[in-house]
Design a protein that fits this description.
The structure holds two protein chains of two kinds. Chain A has one domain (22-182): Aromatic compound dioxygenase (Protocatechuate 3,4-Dioxygenase, subunit A). Chain A has two helices and twelve strands; from the N terminus they run αββββββββαββββ. Chain A has helices at residues 18-21, 158-161, and strands at residues 38-46, 56-61, 88-92, 98-104, 109-110, 116-117, 120-127, 134-140, 165-168, 176-178, 181-182, 192-193. The radius of gyration of chain A is 17 Å and the shape is globular. Chain B is mostly beta strands. Chain B has a single domain (25-225), classed as Protocatechuate 3,4-Dioxygenase, subunit A (Sandwich). Chain B is built from two helices and twelve strands; from the N terminus they run βαββββββββαβββ. In chain B, strand 6 (145-147) and strand 7 form a beta hairpin. Chain B is globular. Classes of the chains: A mainly beta, B mainly beta.
Chain lengths: 194, 236
């Protein structure tokens, strides 16, 4: 191990990342017309003062509608790829700290051993004031697999589990799932050390 | 069916910055109070976006072109390899780059620093690494600029880099600095990483072999992403 190279340290994206990372069309993961239920996921990023974070960037990674990742290390042959879905997105918060992206609801994916993970979207959060990204996940309220999800189960406090579970807006014509990301303080979002 | 997950190695102690680093004031209200929960890697963590097919856009490796004329500033070539911790090249991955101009001003309205914009420079580039993991940009040397972290604080000249690597776990956004910059010893962001050897990774090396005579100075900046754990683990 000692002769391995040291990895490059992370540094903050800073306040002006939009010039380099701004890709408005990457906020719609359905542009290629993939199979599956179209959903909108929206929310607000909030700091330790309860103030909106207007300079955050979220990157998203998820499986397709049947739970297959568009990646060579997902070698399963019984779960088909969707050539129209890459599974990656990026969205920045606006002046009010709000984000909104369009995607399809992912299928369940394998966990470790014989476990099955509930449908989820992996999120990496970048911002000024973050020297490295925070990782979190978005799950979906009402999904029966949430009860047995091996990652949600690692969160001892059931109240904190709720910080990862998006809720569907009742009044929406199409499915809008809401989930705020609280970086610090009361109701702080669960982040993962991956 | 193979059921083996090959997790990525955890960072060595001190080799990555913490979330809370009070010398960098913006971390104080943005660092979580709870420690992030350790997550054993699943298929979600060991996979990530694949950039084959050109969907992320065409390479834009020459930041000095595409405008009405040449940008002001010292022309530089920035080149290097993207490797993993075992020195294996990471090919075909997206490298995104952004920076301020030679006067220390970003081409972005939020930046109100009292320094001139350069109509011939927007400071944005991207390339996919080649089969040897190499990338190369032609740009100009960015200027230092003040920030309000503490009174009279100045950021050392730097270029922002974003690199993906093979998985969501290897995603890295960092900054490249220049050798000999006196501002490094005072910079709360650079100093946020405790391990000095790790910090040295952030400083490009002047490389005369990369310089082009009568044209541009060459800086080498190799980027090392997290590698796999040494021994593949059975997913049980």
């Amino acid at each position: 191990m000692a002769d391995r190279l040291i990895a490059t340290p992370s540094q903050t994206v800073g306040p002006f990342f939009h010039i380099g990372l701004g890709r408005p069309d990457w906020a719609d993961l359905t542009a290629g017309n993939p199979q599956g239920e179209r959903i909108v996921v929206a929310g607000r990023v909030i700091d330790g003062d309860g103030a909106p974070v207007p300079d955050a960037c979220l990157e998203l990674w998820q499986a397709n509608a049947v739970g297959r990742y568009a990646h060579p290390d997902d070698t399963r042959t019984d779960t088909p790829l969707d050539p129209n879905f890459r599974g990656f997105g990026r969205v920045s918060t606006n002046a009010d700290g709000n984000f909104r992206f369009t995607t399809i609801r992912p299928g369940p994916v394998p966990g470790r051993g014989n476990s099955l993970q509930a449908p989820h979207i992996a999120v990496a959060l970048f911002a000024r004031g973050l020297l490295k990204q925070l990782y979190t996940r978005v799950y979906f309220a009402g999904e029966p697999l949430n009860e047995t999800d091996p990652v949600l189960s690692t969160i001892a406090d059931p109240m904190r589990r709720q910080t990862l579970i998006a809720t569907r807006s009742e009044d929406a014509d199409s499915a809008i799932w809401r989930l705020d990301i609280v970086m610090q303080g009361d109701n702080e979002t669960v982040f993962f050390d991956i | 069916m193979s059921d083996t997950i090959r997790p990525f190695a955890r960072p060595r102690e001190g080799s990555q910055p913490p979330y809370l680093h009070p010398d960098y004031a913006s971390t104080v209200k943005r660092a979580p109070k709870h420690s992030p929960i350790p997550l054993e890697h699943t298929l979600t963590e060991v996979t990530g976006p694949v950039f084959a097919g050109g969907w992320a856009g065409a390479d834009a490796a020459d930041l000095t072109q595409g405008h009405g004329g040449p940008p002001l500033g010292e022309r530089i070539i920035v080149s290097g390899r993207v490797l993993d911790e075992d020195a294996r090249p990471v090919s075909g991955t997206l490298v995104e780059l952004w920076q301020c101009n030679a006067a220390g001003r970003y081409c972005y309205p939020v930046d109100q620093h009292d320094a001139p914009l350069d109509p011939n420079f927007d400071g944005v580039g991207q390339v996919l690494t080649d089969e040897r993991g190499e990338y190369r940009f032609l740009t100009i040397k960015p200027g230092a600029y003040p920030w309000r972290n503490t009174y009279n604080a100045w950021r050392p000249a730097h270029i922002h880099f974003g690199i993906f690597g093979p998985a969501f776990t290897t995603r890295l956004i960092t900054q490249m600095y220049f050798p000999g910059d006196p501002l490094l010893a005072l910079d709360a962001i650079y100093l946020g990483t405790a391990d000095e050897k790790a910090r040295q990774r952030l400083i490009a090396a002047y490389d005369p072999n990369l310089s082009e005579a009568e044209w541009a100075l060459g800086y080498r900046f190799d980027i090392v992403l997290r590698g796999r754990e040494a021994t593949p683990m059975e997913n049980t």
